[in-house]
Amino acid sequence: MSTPQNKMHLAAFVTAGPGRPGGWRHPGSEPGWLSASYYQHIGRVLEQGKFDLMFLPDILSVPDRLGGSMDSQLRYGALGSLRLDPTPVLSAVAAATSHLGLAATISTSYFDPFPVARSLSTLDHLSDGRAAWNVVTSFQDSEARNFGEDRHIDRDQRYARADEFLEVACKLWDSWEDDALVFDAETPLFADPDRVHSIDHKGDWFNVRGPLNTPRSPQGYPVIIQAGASPKGRDFAARWSDVIFCSHASLESAKDFYQDIKARAVAHGRRAEDVKILPMATPIIGPTTEAARETEARLFELVPPLAGLSTLAYHLDIDLSELPLDEPLPDVDVPGVQGHYQEVVEMTRREGLTLRELGKKYGGRTEGSFVGTAAEVTDGMAQWFTEGACDGFTVGSVHTPGAFEDFVRQVVPELQRRGLFRTEYEGTTLRDHLALDRPETGQWHDRRHGNADGDNG
């Protein structure tokens, strides 16, 4: 289902800031968000637990989608109230670890291919092959205003740009042949000019001569991560991604997504196992089921409804303050993240929630509903994995770093005892961990057909 050894994969969703609107208020949360040692500690914990990778999301503004104000984000420590740049954070983690994969979120809408390709190639070299790129297009006008624009580019254009951006990045990563560095001091021949090539790309969005001024990196290309929930977004993810990050409100919807993405990958000439699907899971672990449920209830009470609504308004790109709070979320046209909309619609219908209740539920949600003892959490994760809903999980934390420490100390040994997860790393690069082949030069070419339509915020 995933690797030839049928082992699940684990990524950690680590926000370089407070993240969850109630979690930072929990007594087990440590507010070390501005310290390199904080992230290095988390990285060492995850590496002790043999995680595949550490994944840092990003936002390029303080969101103001609820009522046109940043107040709810800043006041309640919501999703975008504080975010450090992922790449230097991961560089610090790279220095403190030796196996853990390092995934940076970088938008294709507000950067250019050359510096992004060089930055990720550099991270891959300095980490000995552990870099990954979570590709996002961004979708908020508040982000556009930080880059000299009044409004974000429309959906069709931003995915056309993203598609070409990836093409240019891959050309740049291929611009040095693997054996171009010679280091022959006697000849002298430092790098063979015949093995370093300009790319001479001229497109609708970018004109880039190249070559990159860093050699081809240990993984060839960094591991590509993406999310997309609309039909075109799924197609984009199935074509380009090595790892797909997603969120589901039920096991059934996760199974449907899994089958659809695998079929799309095969339709693009890839093997189903070349795309790893890692849905979000936010476990709460206790010594007893009752204790875990009590922790869940306490965390839920720490979430102000407006904090959850502010986060949901950002994800959907809709000003929810204009809708009646004591009525259910109506059917709406969502310009933002389709996956989160489908998740909350399913949640609203299943539980009969008003918008106010949905805000609190969304802010305090524990994706996957893995709440209980370590054995019970493992039972739930094993069910999703063995029934074909995923290739593993992107594990979030309700409070950081304590929730990751609990998971590594209690759940990982249970997964290992059941033969579901590795006991040791069997390779050195992130592609090794994920059982992915190192791409050949030019391998990107078969993936680029048409545009895409899907977000990852």
Automatic annotation (TrEMBL):
Pfam families: Bac_luciferase
Residues of the Luciferase-like domain: 20-322
CDD domains: Nitrilotriacetate_monoxgenase
Region (Disordered): 436-457
InterPro entries from the UniProt entry: Diverse_substr_monoxygenases, Luciferase-like_dom, Luciferase-like_sf, NTA_MOA
Record's keyword terms, sorted: Flavoprotein, FMN, Monooxygenase, Oxidoreductase
EC number(s) recorded for this UniProt protein: 1.-.-.-
Record-given protein name: LLM class flavin-dependent oxidoreductase
Native organism: Streptomyces incanus
Source organism phylogeny: Bacteria, Bacillati, Actinomycetota, Actinomycetes, Kitasatosporales
